[in-house]
Amino acid sequence: MSLPRKLMIDGEQVIATTRTHVKVLFLPFLILLVVAGIGGWAISEVGDSGSGVPRWIVVAAMVVLILWGSVLPFLKWLTWTYTLTNKRIVEQKGLLTRTGRVIPLSRINDVAFEKNLNDRILGCGTLIIHDASEQAGLELNDIPHIEAFHRTVTNLVFEKHDKTATDESV
């Protein structure tokens, strides 16, 4: 899910779009397996007793748990994106209510990344961007291929700052 054209500025081009690493879906997947396994066992134990009402209660509980524990986290993961353009970084998230944050590349003054042991194994990390505003820095958690994304952001920031410095000196 890239940045929609209607939200882009004149002359803006999308460089990269990413979302958090798929590792954040491990627990929802585990919940799906456990609920399906226990639910299947419970349905077989209940059988056809009580004209099938207990079976429908188990099925309803399974549906609620799967929706809450697996489908909702998946949809949150799917709709939370980070888009890097040649002019700014855009964070968008939300299922029903979309929210976002935009940081122009010209205002960024620090780009750093962090990787703990499991991030190093999985090839992801957290990108931390500080800009010249009062707000706290933007943390992009669990970004896949963090080194490449960090390098791309840093290069674009340097290009933007070099261009701004050249324009001001003329």
TrEMBL record:
Membrane-spanning parts: 24-44, 56-78
Top-rank lineage group of the source organism: Bacteria
Domain YdbS-like PH per the UniProt entry, residue ranges: 77-151
Keyword Nucleotide-binding part of the UniProt annotation: no
Database matches in Pfam families: bPH_2 (PF03703)
InterPro entries in alphabetical order: YdbS-like_PH
Keywords linked to the UniProt accession: Membrane, Transmembrane, Transmembrane helix
Coiled coil: none
Listed name of the protein: PH domain-containing protein
